[in-house]
Structure formats: structure tokens, C-alpha cells
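We give the chain.
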Amino acid sequence: MRPDTPAEHIAEAERLIRTATRYPEDQEPLLLQAAAHLELADERERASTLYDQLLSSDPADPHLVKALQAANLWEYGHEAEARTLISGIRAAAPTDPAPWEVIAEALEAHDELADSEECFTEAATLLVKESDPLTPATTALLTGRHRVRRLLALPHDEWDMVADTRHTGPVPLDELHDPKRIWALGSNDPAELRAEIARLRAELGDRRAALSRPFPVALLHWPVEELTELLTAYPTLATEYPSHAAHLTAVETSLRSLAASGTHNLGIVTGSVPSYEAFAASEKTSPASPSLLAEYATTLAARGKATPWPPSPTSPCWCTSTKPYAQCHGAP
């Protein structure tokens, strides 16, 4: 059974310490686990002693041990020591993502958001190379960076778009890292927590319902502002989209043709330039490639982003004109 109470965490830590004594070749991972259990039991001074013991014995990953020690020290009032350790790690620029993530999250936990964002960015600059595939560890760095930048209300950059694309959960990162949501989950008010849990359950139900439907054949719709931005950035796509009005007509015409041929479960997905560019980066393909548009639409549909077509005659038209569908693109 996994430890749950402080007493159980302390007992597990003491078992690991005894094991480390018998197997000195495995001392480092065993004592790191023991320190983690002591932290969970709020025995932070004992955990700090274990970190000091490891640092005095030439550990295999001293930067990670120092990062964990810094995070632990700050939690029980030794901020100055923690900051000194964090500064030393940043100056050393380790090539392992783990210590970077620990110190950036320690800064974030103590509302040092600007320093946390700088720390995540330093790590990404050092470790995320265009020529190398992302690993789970470097993806975690970009995800943490995305969260902190969202809290700082900074605009998305290329790495934020990559983090969005790599995220596979049912709730998009922008929603997951919504500052209001994060603050609500950290609230001590039971009513706020219950409201947020209810919202999460409702979202989960919607996602499950979307995934339970048959896979839709979906066409890509660009709102006028997004299409303007897309064609400004990638003018070669103008052959696909001669004008916004022609684009909307082509979507409706294609859907009607598919329906007339007996194709069922049709849908529309709405594109955005940041999402499209992130998708292109994940596929290692230029956003200017017309062949990428259909793949992008299919991927959005697979993520449950498709809106069923056709709308009811009195519902707003899919083109976002606010007119009823029957009086807009649904007209005979």
C-alpha cells in the first residue's frame, strides 16, 4: 500500500535509509526517495540533512540534488540559501532538464513568476534544439514555461505553440493554464473548489461525448481575420483561398456535395494561425504547403474540435455571421 499519512511517509523514508546503508552503490536514488517522503511528511529539516549527505558524497547528479535542496529549503524558511543554490545552478547551466524544472517550479511556487519564466526560457534555449526531437523531459520544460507565461499574460511564441501541439490531454493547454482556473484550484474556499470541480467534470463529459461520436469528415473554416493573417504570412496559399467569400462558399458547396453523395457525419473545424503553425512545426512541414491544410483539418477533427454540419435552420450559421443558417449559407 502506498504511504498516505505523515507517519507512513516517515516509516517509508526510514526503510529506504536502512536499505541505502546496505546497498551503498544505490545510495543516491534511495536517499532521494527517502528525502521526498520526508518532505511529504513535513519533516523538511531531516530531508535537508539527507540532501547535504548526498552532496558531500560526490553524487552522480549534483545539480538535481542542489535543486531539490533549494526547493526544500525555501519551503521551511531558508529563502536566502535557496536563492544562492538556484543562482549557482543557473550559472552552471546543466544539460539535464530535471534541475531546471525543479528550480523554475520553486520560483513559480513562491510567486517569482518573471524569474521562473526566465529560468524556463534559459533551459529551453540550452536544451531544446531544432535538430533534435523533443523528449518527455524537454516537453515538460516547454509545458511549464507555457503555464508561467500564461500567468504573466505574455503572448504566445514559437515554443508555446510547440507545447500546445505536444499536449495530448482533453483540455487544451490555454484552458488548463488559465490563471483564473489555476487560482481557483489553489483556493481555500470550498465553494470555489466545488465550482471548479463541477466545471472540470462537465468538460470531461463533453469531451467523452465528442470522442464517442463516429469520426467526422470535417472541412476547414478560416474566420476572416485569421485568413487575412494566414495569407499575409503565407501568400502561396492564395491559390487555395482567392477571397474570404469564395472560401466560405467553397466550404458550404463541398459539404453539400458530400452529403448528396451519401457521406454522413459531416463537420466543420475552425482554424487559427498560431494553432496551424504549431501543427506545421510538429509535422516538420512548412505552413506554406497547401497539402498540410487537409491534415490540419483532420487532426482538429480527431481532437473533437468539429462542429456538426448542417446546423438547424434557425441556429447561427457556421460562418459566424450571426445570421440564422437558413438565411445565410443554408439558403437554397
Summary: Residues 83 and 150 are 24 Å apart (CA to CA). The chain has a mean pLDDT of 87. The longest helix spans residues 190-212. The chain has 16 helices and three strands.
